[in-house]
Amino acid sequence: MHLTLPFPEAVELALQGAALPPLVRSVACTGATIRADIDLRAVPSPPFALRAVAAVAPIVHVEATFRSFAAGAATFDLAVRAGSVPVQRVLNQLTGLLNSALRAQHVPDGLVTVRQGAAGELLAVLDLQAGVALRTRGVTLTHCALTEGVFEVAATVRDFTLRAT
User: Fold this and answer.
1) For 39-63, how does the pLDDT look when each residue is reduced to its tens digit (9 = 90+)?
2) Measured distance CA(97)–CA(22) in Å, rounded
3) SS3 71
4) How far, in Å, CA of 21 to CA of 42, rounded?
5) Computed from CA positions of residues 68, 65, 103, 116, in that sequence, does the dihedral angle turn out positive or negative?
6) How many domains does the chain have?
7) How open is the CA angle 29-30-34, to the nearest 5 degrees?
8) What's the number of CA atoms in the CB half-sphere (13 Å) around residue 95?
9) Domain span at 58
10) Is the pTM of this model over 0.90?
11) Per-residue tens of pLDDT for the chain, all 165 residues
């Protein structure tokens, strides 16, 4: 099965008709790069470290550029700007928040991880296969790419069923 999905439709599918979370001020895609502005002030009950970051840089600008797809996971080069706050400190806070939000939606740990690459670059890894497995059985992703704002996905489908939500 081959699927071509423009970025706005992919966002709609991911949100399942809901609005963006309040802390996401905007999200857009140009080429292979997804850009999001995150309002740290909109985080409910933030930990002290996050409040400190938000006081200096309330809006975090995130760029994730598609790098590769392998073994069901998409890897993105990650660039984060937050005023003069060190990127690593901001990423640690955002990663924790992201994981908390995903857990609240019953998404397993590890669906999204932020790590350093071999050359020290920041990477975001999305386990797309695990995401698909949350909603279906019998679907195996074999290809994913993001070019010109369009996701191209290929999958094998055998004994397909939807999982109850």
Assistant:
1) 988 887 777 877 887 888 899 888 9
2) 13
3) coil
4) 9
5) positive
6) 1
7) 40
8) 20
9) 2-162
10) no
11) 999 999 999 999 888 888 888 889 999 999 999 999 989 888 877 778 778 878 888 998 889 999 999 999 999 999 888 876 666 655 666 666 666 655 655 567 788 888 888 887 888 999 999 989 988 999 999 999 999 999 999 999 999 999 886
Q: Strand 150-162 relative to strand 112-116: parallel, antiparallel, unpaired?
A: unpaired
Residue count of the chain, please give it: 165
DSSP-H helix ranges across 1-74: 7-15, 48-56
Angle between helix axes 48-56 and 87-104 (nearest 10 degrees) is 130
66-82: per-residue pLDDT in tens? 999 999 999 999 988 88
Grouping H, G, I as helix, E, B as strand and the rest as coil, residue 109 is coil
Q: Would you state the structure tokens that stand for residue 64, as one six-digit string?
A: 């994730």
Residue 87: predicted pLDDT:
66
